[in-house]
Design goal:
Layout lengths: L2 H4 L7 H12 L5 E3 L4 H11 L6 E3 L4 E2 L21 E2 L2 H9 L6 E4 L3 E2 L5 E2 L2 E3 L4 E4 L6 H7 L2 E5 L20 H6 L9 E5 L3 E4 L8 E5 L5 H6 L6 E8 L5 H11 L8
Parallel strand pairs: 1-2, 1-5, 5-10, 10-11, 13-14
Antiparallel strand pairs: 3-4, 6-7, 8-9, 11-12, 12-13
Helix pairs in contact: 2-3, 3-8
Length: 261
């Protein structure tokens, strides 16, 4: 990259950092099951940069969305205008997802463990949780059937990166296989956080630290993780968002600050 491109403009927010890094990870992918929020930002930015042919698929049944502005919900009418197709739920989940046509599924979580299992149900005991969360939605189907899953976590703490989940909402392939279920996909392969990037190759692998953001140490990441985190032989430093990436994100992808608040 040229020196001009590597200089960032102004302070970079957590949402901008996570969106840019997630977008870069979509290079070479063709279809992405995108949730609302950071996954939408990442998919739109990837379309303008590293993955111009990428197609976004939404849980509402919209495939190949080309919205004129960012959708505020998965049912936002702006997703339908110009879309390649709008499918029924049985067609979306039964044919597109279970047919193995999704390269990357984007998921979020309140908790994740070393195997890539996710909790989006409760924090605390099931009977009397301290926090009750929305639950699965389509996450179980995405985890089981997308070729790989990216998880974006806003907080990297021992509570969110838990040695033991308070509840397993979305089992990864290792847990599913132990229960006699054979998923199509490899489960979580990338976890993008405020501290760096964790990765795993598939069944039998634990998440390991592969990259840190500038100024973050391996020790800081391990201290913020609720299990004994494995570390790659070579840990790289993530390139900060460039001027070009930030301009696209701020001026073209989300000029009205739907998610970049």
């Amino acid at each position: 990259m040229s020196e001009e491109c590597t200089q960032t403009t102004g302070a970079v927010t957590s949402s901008e950092l996570l969106s840019v890094v997630a977008a870069r990870e979509l290079a070479g992918r063709r279809t992405v099951f995108a949730g609302i929020g950071l996954p939408t930002l990442a998919a739109e930015l990837a379309h303008l940069t590293v993955a111009p042919e990428i197609e976004a698929v939404y849980e509402s049944g919209v495939c190949g969305a080309h919205p004129s502005r960012l959708p505020e919900t998965i049912a936002d009418a702006v997703l339908i205008t110009g879309a390649e197709a709008v499918l029924t739920m049985p067609a979306l989940f039964g044919s597109v997802l279970q047919g193995g046509h999704i390269d990357v599924g984007f998921l979020g979580a309140a908790q994740i463990d070393r195997w890539g299992n996710l909790n989006t149900s409760v924090i605390g005991e099931w009977e009397r949780p301290s926090v009750r969360l929305p639950g699965s939605g389509g996450a179980v189907e995405v985890m089981a059937n997308a070729r790989e899953v990216f998880v974006v976590m806003r907080r990297h703490t021992p509570r969110s990166f838990a040695g033991t989940l308070d509840f397993c909402t979305t089992p990864g392939p290792d847990r599913a296989l132990a229960d006699g279920i054979r998923p199509l996909g490899t489960g979580v392969t990338r976890v993008i956080t405020e501290l760096g990037i964790l990765a795993r190759d598939g069944v039998g692998d634990e998440l390991r630290l592969v990259a840190v953001h500038p100024g973050v140490t391996v020790g800081q990441v391990r201290a913020a993780t609720g299990w004994e985190l494995k570390v790659a032989d070579t840990v790289t430093t993530v390139e900060p968002p460039t001027d070009a990436e930030l301009r696209l994100l701020r001026d073209d992808v989300d000029p009205h600050r739907v998610y970049l608040r």
